[in-house]
Structures are given as C-alpha cells and as structure tokens.
Design brief:
about 15% strand; alpha+beta; 2 domains; 9 strands; about 400 residues; Alpha-Beta Plaits
Length: about 400
C-alpha cells in the first residue's frame, strides 16, 4: 500500500492529527506507513479528479448559472491544488524532507465539501437530469474515498459525510416527496461505508503489526532482544560501506563469556538465560548510541563501533570487560560473577566485509583466551599476528601468534 522508498511526515495541526489518528497503541512506524497510504493509489486519485471535473463541467454547460459555474471553478482550483501538493509531497518524501501532509489532508476535506456543494445545488435546481448526475457521481466517490483513505478512518468518515450528506437538505428543499427516501437510504449508506473504513483500518494495522513483529523476530535474538546474526550483518554492511566512503575506521569486537558453562551447569539453563539477558543489558548500557551489539549464539556477542584508532577500540573493550565483570543476582540467593574476553578486528585494515572481520576478531579472541581471559586482544597491523591489550595498558607491546 505504501511506497517504501518514500517517507511522509506525520500531521502537526490539531485538526489533521485528529483526522489521521490511528489509535493510542499504534507505534510511530505504523503511523508513518498509514500516512504514506493516503498519498498512494494514484489511479483512484486520478479517477476521482477526472470524475468530478467532468461532471461539474457537464452540469455547468447544461445550466450555466452562478452556482454551477462557481462549482466548476471550485473543482478546478481544489483539484489543481491537490495535484500540486501531491507532487511536492512525493518529491519531498523521496528526499526524506518534511512533507505538506496537513495541507494535503485539508485539501481532501475541501474536495469532498465541494462534491457535497455540487450535490446540494443540483438537487435544488429543479433539473432532475442534473440532480441525478450529481448524486450518482457523489455516491461513486464514496467508494473511492473509503478505499483510498481507510488508513485514516476518521478522515474517510468526514469526507464521506461532507460529500454525500448534503443530499438530505437537498432532498428536503427539492419539493419532491419521493426524494424523502434519501432520509432512510443515505444515513445507512454513510454509516455502512464509514464502518467499512474503520474495519479495513483495523485489519490493515493488524497485518502491519504482524509483519513488523515477524520482521523483528527474524532479525533479533529471542532471548536478549539484541539483533541476531542476520540483523547484525545487515547493520554492519551499511555501516562499513558508509565508513569506507568517508575514510572512517570501525572496530568489530568479538566477546565470549569466561566460564559461562560452569555457571550454566551449576545453576541450570534458566539461570544461564537470565545471566545472558543481564549481560546484554549491560552491553547496551555501556555502549554509545551509534554502536551496535548482537548475540550470535550461546555466550558469544559482537559489537561494531566507529573509532578513531585501535587504542580507542581497546578502551571500548576494557569498558565492556569492566561492565560485565560485576556480580549478577540470579535469584534464590545465587550471586555469581562472570568475565569476558574480547578480540578486536579493525576495519579497513583487515577488510571491509563482515565475514573477513569476524575471522580476524575470532582469532584475536582466541589469543585473549589463551593469555588468561578477561582481557582484550586487538589484531596487530602486522599481517598474521595479534597484539594483546589489557585493562590499563592500552595495546601491549607483546604479540602472540594468530590462531
């Protein structure tokens, strides 16, 4: 329904916010997607514009009086304005700039009000050909309004009412008793189409929520809520590409908990899962906003961080070691401590691809484990060798063989 290459702004005015409101529990991303739906379905938009312009022009030619000439002029002005705002909004959305959403919604109301005006003056004109043409056109527009605007059901309801509602005072003033049937027919039609818009909106939100939930589950670790390997690979790919274009450095940190198996065997898998969730929370709390962390399985985590140098990467690793080292309350009076070893691969020195960096970081992690655990080991700039860095020491001068 929405073109994912375009992002439209949420409305800011009080009236338009109310008209486009999707409910208190709807996430912002879904609200943005729903607003995007109002700018889509261009064939329906074009058909509606063509219909009202042709009908108003035909009626003005048949009865060239002030009310009908005014309606034609009003239709030309509103339809032209809507088309212009739509073009501007779509171009701005591609550039992710602010879009004139409020103006677009107000012009939609103005258009439906113009249709309603045409119905009213046609029914009170005494010309039943004109009245029939205007009423049939308005009824046809209601279907298009419901289909095109059900992502904002309040807006659809108001547009349906303003376009078709004037048939009731028109029937009352027409002086033809047979038209009084409209007092039973029109409210039922308006109510049915309004309820349809709300039901379609509810179904759309449920579908979008399910899609986003499935997408989230596919890219995140169920236990910790961190991105999983697939989600992390996507994030690291885009981050490394941007860093390469800008000549920036990144560090991939490979973390593995020390002696986690002992804790898992002693206290059980449930306690081990609680520990992993708490470790993940500490990682997220310790890292900077731009850094990305993931759990790739078991007790292994990865972190991607933008850095200026390998020394800064080691500092980040040291902070993570210190954060993880604090004790954990596993419940039932069980309090444990766990360490973490960190292997670091720098980009672009060791490549700009996820798999290449992961191999180097894994080798650095092996080196850290072999040197006593709970320490950093950053890949040396000397190909095939690693430099060990310990808390407080930066990058140590000693080197060890890569695995």
């Amino acid at each position: 329904m929405q073109d994912k290459t375009r992002v439209y702004s949420l409305p800011r005015w009080r009236l338009t916010r109310w008209l486009a409101d999707a409910g208190p529990q709807v996430p912002r991303k879904i609200r943005v997607a729903l607003i995007g739906g109002l700018f889509g379905t261009l064939p329906v938009f074009a058909a509606g514009v063509a219909n009202t312009l042709v009908v108003s022009a035909a009626i003005a030619m048949r009865m060239p009086t002030a009310p009908f000439i005014a309606w034609l002029i009003l239709e030309i002005f509103i339809c032209s304005a809507r088309l212009g705002v739509l073009i501007v909004a779509r171009r701005a959305a591609v550039r992710e700039c602010e879009t004139p959403t409020d103006i677009y919604l107000v012009l939609g109301l103005a258009w439906s009000g113009s249709v309603g005006y045409g119905v009213f003056v046609s029914m009170t004109s005494g010309d039943w050909v004109i009245a029939t043409l205007a009423c049939v056109s308005a009824a046809a527009m209601v279907g298009g309004i419901c289909f095109r605007h059900f992502s904002a059901p309040r807006l659809a309801a108001v547009m349906i009412l303003t376009s078709l509602g004037p048939t009731l005072p028109g029937a009352a003033l027409a002086g033809e008793p047979v038209l009084y049937v409209a007092f039973a027919q029109v409210p039922m039609y308006v109510l049915a189409m309004t309820l349809a818009a709300f039901k379609l909106n509810k179904m759309l939100i449920a579908t979008m929520s399910a899609e986003r939930e499935n997408d989230y589950r596919a890219r995140h670790d169920v236990l910790t809520g961190l991105p999983n390997r697939e989600g992390f690979a996507e994030a690291i790919g885009s981050t490394l590409a941007v860093a390469q274009r800008k000549g920036e450095k990144c560090a991939l940190l490979f973390l593995d908990l020390d002696d986690f198996k002992t804790i898992n065997d002693t206290y059980g898998h449930a306690a081990g899962d609680r520990l992993l969730k708490m470790v993940a929370g500490r990682l997220v709390h310790t890292l900077r906003t731009a850094d990305v962390a993931t759990r790739i399985g078991g007790d292994e985590f990865l972190v991607l961080a933008k850095v200026h140098s390998s020394e800064q990467a080691v500092e980040i690793g040291q902070r993570l070691i210190a954060a993880v080292a604090s004790s954990y309350d596993l419940g039932g009076a069980a309090s444990v401590k766990v360490g973490v070893s960190v292997g670091i691969a720098m980009a672009p020195e060791y490549g700009s691809g996820f798999e290449d960096l992961l191999i180097v970081a894994d080798a650095a992690l092996y080196e850290a484990k072999s040197k006593g655990k709970s320490r950093c080991c950053v890949a040396s700039l000397v190909p095939g060798r690693l430099a060990a860095g310990e808390p407080g020491d930066g990058i140590a001068s000693g080197v060890g063989a890569a695995a």
